Amino acid sequence: MTITTIIWVSFVIALVAGYVIWEVVRFRKYGGMMLVTCPETGKPAAVKISVAGAVWAALRGRRQVELAACSRWPERADCEQDCLCEIEANPEEHKAWTIAAKWFAGKNCAFCGKTIAPVKHMDRMPALVNLDKKTFEWNEIPTEELPAAFDACRPVCWNCHIAETFVREHPELVTFRPWKKSGPIGEYVPSNDGDESAGMTEAKRRAA
What we know:
Blueprint: H1 3-26, E1 33-37, E2 44-49, H2 51-59, E3 67-70, H3 84-89, H4 91-94, H5 96-104, E4 127-129, E5 135-137, H6 146-152, E6 154-156, H7 158-169, H8 196-207
Helix pairs in contact: 1-2
């Protein structure tokens, strides 16, 4: 094989590899779990796009986006996948991360009152507290149940979530301060009986 041939083969390989990478990057917008309104039921459904399938179809000159998973499967695995129209119109708005980030934005923790940190990948997840006063991270909730959870729960910062979880699981290791949990869902509310300094100590301990 001559030098010229090697150069041309290398150029073609690089060109093909570059095109594949471009298509992968282009379809990354469909990655992750997404929330849609099921056309059949009118209720939330969690779906996942087959990114690999979309890239492979594009390499063959076809534009084809299909579901790889749905919370209504396997019972309705033969559906028409009409929900894809919602996603293709604006994939970013249907991502679970985007929906959660918008819901937590600007909200304050139900326990310490601090502003919830922005929702980011590979970071400390904010949490929710339900009427049973149990906290849990938002990404532990099935995606299709997020709208109902956001309606029924209140936001909690990561620090307070860890503190409340520890108190719930190891009550024998916790010393409680005079600042009472007098809020409607068990959050700390300052008292007016002169023990406010002790309450502040407890709040700082939980936020640490």
